[in-house]
Amino acid sequence: MFTMVRFPVAAAFGHGPSSTAWPMSYLTTAGPRADPVTALVWGLILLSIAVSFLIAVLVVWGVLVRRVPGSDEGVASMAVSRPAGGLKWIWIGLVPTVGALVVALIWTIYAIRAVDSPGQSPALTIEVTGHQWWWELRYPGSSPNANFTSANEIHIPVGEPVLIELKAADVIHSFWIPALGGKTDAIPGRTNLTWIQADRPGVYRGQCGEFCGLQHAHMALVVVADPPEAFEAWRQAQLRPAPQAHDTVRAGQALFDAHCGACHTVSGTAAGGIVGPDLTHVMSRSTLAAGMLRNTRAARLGWISNPQALKPGARMPATDLSARELAGVESYLETLR
Amino acid sequence: MSRPGATRPDQAGKEATWEGARDPRIVDATAEFPGPRLKRIWETKPGLLGWFATVDHKEIGKRYIVTAFLMLIAGGLEALAIRLQLSRADQHLLTPEQYNQLFTMHGVTMIFLYASPVLSGFSNFLWPLLLGSRDMAFPRLNALSYWIYLAAGVFLYAGFVVGLGPDDGWFNYVPYASKTFNPGVNIDIYALGLILLGISTTVGSANFVVSFLRTRAPGMSINRVPILTWGTLTASAANLLAVPSVSLAFFLLWMDRQFDTHFFDASQGQPLLWQHLFWMFGHPWVYAIVLPAMGMVSDALPTFCRRPLVGYTPVALSTVATMALGFGVWVHHMFATGLPTVALSFFSGASLIITIPSAVAVFAWTATIWTGRPVIRTPFLFFASMIVLFVIGGVSGVMTGSVPVDWQLTDTYFVVAHIHYVLIGINVFPVIGAAYYWFPKFTGRMLNEKLGQWNFWTMFVGFNLGFFPMHLLGLLGMPRRIYAYSAGMGWETTNLIVTLGAFLFAFGVLLFLINVAWSLRRGPAAANDPWGGATLEWAVASPPPVYNFAVIPQVVSRHPLWEDSLAEGEARSSLTRGLLLDRGRETIGTTPLDGQPNLILEMPGDSLSPVILAAGLSLVFAAALGHAWWLTGLGVLICVAALITWFWPRRVHGDVPRESAHG
Amino acid sequence: MAEAIRYGQDLPVGARGRNSTGWWGLLCLIATEGSLFAYLLFSYVYIAIQRGSAWLPDPHPSLKLAGPNTLILLASSVCVWWAERGIKRNHRGQLLAGLAAAVILGTAFLGIQVLEWSGKDFSLSSGSYGSLYFVITGFHMAHVIVGIAILLCVLGWSATGAFTRRRHEPVTLGGLYWHFVDVVWLFVFSTFYLSPRLIG
């Protein structure tokens, strides 16, 4: 169902086909917060394979070379002796072991320092709050009018570091965009900081990395890295309040305000709830229900009429709207671009 | 018969009997003496009452092993359900709640109710035999430990079978485990059940520590004990220091949930306190459930290589070193929680250094194979393959110990692969190997060798097919603890392979159970020493007599049964000539380091106090779960009564007339 | 036989003093219980550091009751030590008197603790400080109650003449447990009552 990942963009910039096949893989990454770690991941994988292979060969070879051939008699009858020379192999084995560990430790400390903070101070800060089971995003501006709120789809300008302030509204979640960097937990009562930077335009999928309850499996988010002009255009669009509703959708808006407004906000209207995602520009987002559904008319209708069927345990209750009412709400939502 | 001076001439009258002391005679054991007499003294009365009252370490050990294997089966079935759910994308076999309870109970079962108890079972059965003693230091405590373990297992499963099992993972992080987000009784069952289990672990550990220090055969100085006892001793000492942490964490959580205290909530307390307390326990615990199994390999692998273990001293020291370092690495479970970079670097370093003592063991085993003459039998296959699985689990552990790498790896299937290589590779494989190795000593019969080889290869192939691809899943970004995933993530084929491997592995375990069931009745009778082993357990009959040793053996080397073959000194251990201790249930107490006899230990008879105390404790916990405080009070009274009976001072010492001991 | 094992001497039969397995068993119990209190106090320190000094109650906990109470508990330890010294010299009267005094002092400690509890203007559920205070001191009180119960058992057995000059293991073990409970109090006392004074 995750067809929302817009990989043509990535492919156009030479981002290999591997990332299209494995959107959550971190074997290839796309920014300075992740790349030094990816090198270390590969280094340690190769080291691990070499060590495992070496010991496996030593054990199997040793058994084959030294075994008592074709003995069907009882083990007890075989002679016991203590050939010398075994002990030195412990020390001989320890030397490369310690050497490899020292290299791993130095490389580890180097990688920690390399990704500890961005090269330039981030111009953009995004407040990300984990909820059961979606991500709230706040883009603070210089004035209250310059703030806006969104959900589950982070837009960032390409090539610039972005500071992420992590909070949790209920339980512990973990912010994780594999291609852009490792996990940082969002813990209630604390604000954790991390940063991301995408060096290539594209869509980078992420998912909650800490078990957080029934729908932990469906708590995805995406980072959309746009060229600076596109990002600025997106930002301006997000800043605008919802357009005045046309007469044709006014009935739908009234239904929305009555049934949905207690939990969802559409800025500039009576709907001001803060429990669920801000829907002011819901049509600009590629997915619904924290990355679970592609944002289509059918998906919206299905989701609104019975969220529990799709995402059991989700905080959004089923609504008892008739098919006509549902269509009205849907036509109102379609104006929220 | 009595040698002059065996009883002190000045001992006359009542006072003298209270101050009892004697010089135990050294005699040669024969078929007629003192075995039959000891049998009368040590054997448990037949019938149900005797079954509940027995304190025989061999009986308790077998109960531990059987119960732990039942738990392994339960945890395995849970795993198969999980694997079916994950075999395809967007599967709907299980609801999210069912899935969460299943993966939680799978972890709880395997980690708490199988991995540690099964090792306690082996150690309980084997320790006195390995150490040349007649029982553990505290036989009644041993029985108590088992009964509480059983009660805790039933307690933890009681909720699960009615759909109220714990559902927040075995790590049980707050605030999801708090009343606000998890209002049901599920977490309360887990909290109280684990505190109950902690009591079992603690008293069992104390028993191992004191048995190690005080009940070794004369001459068995601490550089002559089998490595298994080093492993269990180290694990037990660690448990004494670590288990209070998790018991406390669960108690405080229960207080938060039931009495509105504020230890873990974000507004007043600190959610991360849970993680510290849990992992300060959790990481040492991981070593506690592998070190005794590593000890089994260190003791049994050399038997099949027909030579002593290479590097006894480095391996024994590295066992202790692993545990000591194991207390300093808990933060590597918390690398992503936003701790300062300096602290992370320190714990990263500690997590890498802990590899070194493990490497010592790996090289010691490999060198034992290379400098020995391996004879390939089923136990050997399990032990030799364990070396490779251990290395794979070890190097993936190094990867997760590297902070920035762990930021990517943590909470993915890579970690699932890692813990299964560690826990199955270093616990299940050695345990099944040990079952093949010691089955003749447990039952007097051999397991079927041919079926054993099939058993091994099925498990080995199934295991690697099921768990090796999980590394790849982790690297491809599949998170742990998700009940479903969508197509298009690139995880489907791999997951299907994993599921097939898991079923093959389960089939391998089934072959083991079939082998046990068949061999119990039809297996060939076992000699005392079917493998030509080096240690004392092979000197006694298979299965051993109830009193273990007719006379207390005297030990002069690490390999009492190999001294003639190795011919490395003049001295020989004495197995059939030794101390006669037959005035009631007695064994010898020795000094902690040198193993010099310094006390005749009076061992308690069979007693119902342990099972009554366990029942009383279970009542306390079950009643607390339902807030039935008067029942809790009743449970406390039962416990107090059982304890007072237990500790009632013995007024007569060492003067049981020889004729009156059990007629 | 060429063994270097020392035989041919009289070995005591059954439990006796520090030579007994019971002594070692109790040391294990003390290790694990000591760890429990270490983790409890760690929890206090951890949350205190996270919350800062404003988190402490104002005014800081008073020494008016806790100070003298600490002395009472220490005195009870001296009584137990004196009692055990008595039985070692076969003075059963001294054993009984010492144990009885320790039980009375221990009970007095409990009473004063209850008084101290009732004077607090915070509760178990009013905040994390209150939770820590009542749970940690509560854990200690539970240990004092168990200790008193043990001393009462030992006292009862002593009265019936169960112990002699050389064989009085329950006195030794019960006494050691009581000393442990007292030492733990010193840590609890220092943490709650003295440490806020040090940081001002």
Q: Topology of this structure?
A:
The complex is a heterotrimer of chains A (337), B (663) and C (200).
Chain A: H1 7-12, H2 17-21, H3 35-66, H4 87-116, E1 124-131, E2 134-139, E3 148-151, E4 153-157, E5 162-168, E6 173-177, E7 181-186, E8 192-196, E9 202-207, E10 220-226, H5 228-239, H6 247-259, E11 287-288, E12 293-294, H7 297-305, H8 307-310, H9 323-333
Helix pairs in contact in A: 3-4, 6-9
Chain B: H1 13-18, E1 21-22, E2 26-28, H2 35-42, H3 48-53, H4 57-86, H5 96-131, H6 139-161, H7 186-214, H8 227-259, H9 271-288, H10 291-305, H11 312-326, H12 341-353, H13 355-370, H14 378-401, H15 403-409, H16 413-443, H17 449-475, H18 492-522, E3 552-554, H19 563-566, E4 574-579, E5 586-590, E6 597-602, H20 609-625, H21 629-647
Antiparallel strand pairs in B: 2-4, 3-4, 5-6
Helix pairs in contact in B: 4-5, 4-6, 4-18, 5-6, 5-7, 5-16, 6-7, 6-20, 7-8, 7-20, 8-9, 8-10, 8-11, 10-13, 10-14, 10-16, 11-13, 13-14, 14-16, 14-17, 16-17, 17-18, 20-21
Chain C: E1 11-12, H1 21-51, H2 63-88, H3 92-118, H4 128-159, H5 169-198
What does it look like?
The complex is a heterotrimer of chains A (337), B (663) and C (200). Chain A contains nine helices and twelve strands. Chain A has 337 residues and is of the alpha+beta class. Chain B has helices at residues 13-18, 35-42, 48-53, 57-86, 96-131, 139-161, 186-214, 227-259, 271-288, 291-305, 312-326, 341-353, 355-370, 378-401, 403-409, 413-443, 449-475, 492-522, 563-566, 609-625, 629-647, and strands at 21-22, 26-28, 552-554, 574-579, 586-590, 597-602. Chain C starts with 10 loop residues before the first strand and ends with a helix. The chains are: A alpha+beta (337), B mainly alpha (663), C mainly alpha (200). Chains in contact: A-B, B-C. Strand 1 (21-22) of chain B pairs antiparallel with strand 1 of chain C, so a sheet runs across the interface.
